[in-house]
Amino acid sequence: MNEMLTLMKPELVLTGIIFLLLFIKLGKGMKNETLLLLIQVLLLLNFISGFFFNAEGTLFGGMYQTTGLMVLQKNILNLGVYLISLLFADWFKKSEHMPEFFMLMLSALLGMFFLISSGNLLMFFLALELSTIPVAAMANFDLEKRRSSEAGMKMILSSAFSSGILLFGTSLIYGATGTISFAEIPFHLNGSPLQILALVFLFSAFAFKLSIVPFHLWTADVYEGSPVATTAFLSVISKGAVAFIFMATLYKVFQPMQAIWYNLIMILAVATMVIGNLFALRQQNIKRFLAFSSIAQVGFILVGISSNSTDGTTSVVYFILIYIFSNLAAFGVAAAIAAKANRENIDDYKGLYQSNPFLSWVLALALFSLAGIPPTAGFFGKLFLLTAGASKGSYLFIIIAALNMIISLYYYLRVVRSVFMDKNDLPMEKIQIEPSAKLALIICSAGIILVGLLSWIYDYIQNLV
Amino acid sequence: MMQPGLYHLLFISTALFFIGVYGFFTRRNLVTMLMSVELILNSVNLNFIAFNKYLWYDKMDGLFFTIFIIAIAAAEAAVAIAIIINLYRSHQSIDVENTEDLRY
User: Fold this and answer.
1) Residue A103 lies in a domain
2) Which of A76, A223, A298, A459 is placed for a possible disulfide with A291 were both Cys, Cβ 3.0 to 4.6 Å?
3) Is residue A223 included in any domain, yes or no?
């Protein structure tokens, strides 16, 4: 019993918060301002508690497992959710159903925790569903908006379809190996055609969740239509969690079929980077632009995953940490501008620097980090990903990835140019930012600069792997 | 009379799977698309049961998995139908061709 409490601590704390919110909602209720403050404090405590009393071990006959690295991954996601609760305070306060939104978001986060810790295909499937079904409800959260309901519909249908594919792959794995435990599957894999088919099915389900290229079509629509807090959650937290489990599944479960999935990843990574970049070039809406840029970023994550080594694991975890800071900063600025000035087009950002220097600098820093320009952490993140990928020796692949970084510079810098250099006769008025959103933007900016410069962070992750 | 073997069941479940995929891509009505997804999930159930009965009858993993899939499919359908009802309120239609506010 005591062992269960320490091993499952992240999940149990989160469940406690969800139930507390439920009781507050069912009881008298609270004013949105006080409740939001309470949630922010609870999420901060949740994040801090992730550093203490951690243990390693397995539970329930190997269905649930936890290691130091998994605890760290969960805590990175905790940090992201805490930042989301700070960043979009403005939208949360106006929302009629704020407690429900947090219940859905934290349930999805709980699903991701179980996903990271799953040691069994059944647990994995349940956790994956727990982490996607609430997100569809979150996408549809602006009930009266046409676009939001369209986004929710696209999200739930594509995720239901992808979980159907995942289950078909799972059933083939069960048929071919006779077990659903992650620890036992590798011993039964011998590369028979049935197993390859199962791998392809599982792979495409992951590709759906990560929006890897042939399966990316839902991404931009859902990102544009959803409320911005959902978009941020989907593009940062959800993507990070699925990237972690994707890597763990490939490295641990499908290790014997490494030669097959290496080729798959290589082809899909190139396609993802090229298509994500090419579509990002022509976007006018800032949310769609960030959607395609996040597709391109997944391509780089795949380069890191392809290395199949501890360096790969370290660099992916490190990159996701940086990606959380930089993408959330970009979404935070876009949300502040969209809420106050009701503008979402990149052309409207012309001359933003004249009236809002703080927002402009944060946006520029975030975009530099996403593009991977040296003083920011994004450069180090991409450097480690490509170094890890290069260890396999296919240099053409790495060269294509590096060329894609140059293409991506064009569209990231286009936004920076319109913010700083283009003159606008009717610039946006001065935007008042919520204090908590300002705090979150400062945390993100500090993260973007410091995570790259403090080398002990990378060493710390490497020691856990 | 011939007893159905593993291959018969696998043939049916694979056929069901691809009928589901075909329906998902060709039907334009959201409820029918949801039904196609249910077909896919049921083909998976059939797969699990068949593998469990013919290949791995000493382990119960497949049967448990099936029960969980049925439960999750119900939860997924509940959320999907709620979203479709909300979509009908705003669009006055559940045809995917009419949901075209978001496109390239």
Assistant:
1) no
2) A223
3) no
Is this complex's ipTM strictly greater than 0.85?
yes
- What's the gap in Å between the CA of A40 and the closest CA on chain B? 28
Residue A171 falls inside a structural domain: no
- How many CB atoms are located within 10 Å of the residue B26 CB? 10
Reading the block at residue A276, the tokens are: 């994500």
Amino acid, res. A291: A
pLDDT tens, residue by residue, B4-63: 888 889 999 999 999 999 999 998 899 999 999 999 999 999 999 999 988 888 888 889
* A157: chain B residues, CB-CB within 8 Å: 30, 33-34, 37, 80
| Distance, CA of A190 to CA of A186 (rounded, Å) | 9
- How far does B3 lie from chain A, in Å, by closest CA? 20
Pick left, alpha or beta for residue A54 (phi over 0 → left; psi -120 to 50 → alpha; otherwise beta): beta
Q: Residue A69 falls within a domain, yes or no? A: no
Domains of chain B (ranges plus CATH)?
29-97 (1.10.287.3510)
Contact (Cβ atoms closer than 8 angstroms) between residue A234 and residue A135? yes
Q: Does A144 touch chain B (CB under 8 A)?
A: yes
* Domains of chain A: total: 1
